[in-house]
Design a protein that fits this description.
single chain; alpha/beta; Rossmann fold; six-stranded mixed β-sheet; 13 helices; 42% helix; disordered N terminus
Length: 406
């Protein structure tokens, strides 16, 4: 299929791919119109087979349109650029506190979103920036929150670990390891109770696989056939330790990942989390499965390029050659770039132009976020306690608090 069938020129392609839907000229991910009207369906095989437990795994043959592949490329490139910019802002001390970056894992966020609707719910841990973008958040909200500004998605009071957008079905951003999974199962309980045919994706890292509350939540979800998909983002690296290194702790973590699949009685599927089409296929399969049969576990085999957090250089427990090897062989953006070029959907120069425009939009979003004011001190106790129970301002009588309140 020739490039001309999708766009008449480089500039036209870029404008179509990067056209915002809302008034501010910044991305609302997964919403911008893609190039052309060509709905040719391509059938593409996933990078590796799925590995199923107690279920027949989905087919490796995935259908995708040229428009969809271009959207995948753009959305993952936006996420990558946002995280690279966040790294720089943190080192410039414009982002304070904790900050956990997602670059390398973008295929999970994008592929999952492609398989579901905004009526479905997602809840995740503290590596949440890109999941937020996928749900419909924009760059200004993201950078404002990272820098503690009032226009942030959590009004500047949540920071990196506590992004939130309830109206888009995104329930956070949670800092306590594994604590979001029971909440996700609770969301699924509400969905089953309301009979609205929606599901919840509860994401957690491999480092949370040993948490008791995770087992407990999965157990009750299995008993009640709740429409919840537990997604383990196995990036093979816990804080300061490589999952692949032989040690007693890592051996137990590997056992826990397997015990969850076996002991719960639920079906499970292992997925190449660096392949956006595989993630899309697995999540589509999982949604259909849980609406009929109750919970399922998806283990996403993925990889993060940055350290665990900004205090972790990420190079003491793995080599630079290892990281470079993953970038060269498995990078999710480069895989889609190769597909686009192979099927002649766009040229290499057109994709480069898209990336240049993305860098510009990210820079503009950062500039706008910097202009946003900090939260007013009067907001200190807002949205902390439930209203109407007399504790909305619990602690406001402390002298150090009185000093900042109006």
């Amino acid at each position: 299929m020739a490039v001309s069938r999708l766009a008449s020129s480089t500039s036209t392609l870029c404008k179509l791919l990067l056209r915002p839907l809302s008034a501010p000229p910044f991305y609302r991910s997964f919403s911008a119109a893609a190039a052309g009207d060509d709905q040719t369906v391509l059938t593409i095989e996933t990078s590796v087979p799925f590995t199923g437990h107690k279920i027949d795994p989905p087919s490796r043959s995935v259908e995708a349109t040229p428009k969809e592949l271009l959207s995948f490329f753009r959305d993952m490139a936006v996420m990558r650029r946002m995280e690279i910019a966040a790294d720089s802002l943190y080192k410039s001390k414009l982002i304070r506190g904790f900050c956990h970056l997602y670059d390398g894992q973008e295929a999970v966020a994008v592929g999952m979103e492609a398989a579901i609707t905004k009526r479905d719910s997602i809840i995740t841990a503290y590596r949440d920036h890109c999941i937020f973008l996928g749900r419909g958040g924009n760059l200004v909200e993201a950078f404002s929150e990272l820098m503690g500004r009032r226009t942030g998605c959590s009004k500047g009071k949540g920071g990196s670990m506590h992004f939130y957008k309830k109206e888009a079905g995104f329930y956070g951003g949670h800092g306590i390891v594994g604590a979001q999974v029971p909440l996700g199962c609770g969301l699924a309980f509400a969905q089953k109770y309301s009979k609205d045919e929606t599901v919840t994706f509860a994401l957690y890292g491999d480092g949370a696989a040993n948490q008791g509350q995770l087992f407990e939540a999965l157990n009750i979800s299995a008993l009640w056939d709740l429409p919840v998909i537990l997604v383990c983002e196995n990036n093979h690296c816990e804080c300061c330790e490589d999952f692949g290194v032989e040690s007693e702790g890592n051996d137990r973590r590997k056992e826990w990942l397997m015990e969850m699949k076996i002991g719960s009685g639920c079906g499970a599927d292992q997925v190449d989390g660096m392949d956006v089409l595989a993630v899309k296929q697995a999540c589509k399969f999982a949604k259909e499965h849980v609406l009929k049969n109750g919970p399922i576990i998806l283990e996403m085999d993925t990889y993060r390029y940055h350290g665990h957090s900004m205090s972790d250089p990420g190079s003491t427990y793995r080599t630079r050659d290892e990281i470079t090897g993953v970038r060269q062989e498995r990078d999710p953006i480069e895989r889609v770039r190769k597909l686009i070029l192979t099927h002649e959907i766009a040229s290499a120069s057109e994709l480069k132009d898209i990336e240049k425009e993305i860098r510009k939009k990210v820079d503009e979003a950062i500039a706008q976020a910097k202009e946003s004011p900090m939260p007013d001190p009067s907001e200190l106790f807002a949205d902390v306690y439930v209203k109407g129970y007399g504790v909305e301002a619990f602690g406001a009588d402390r002298k150090e608090v009185k000093g900042v309140l109006p």
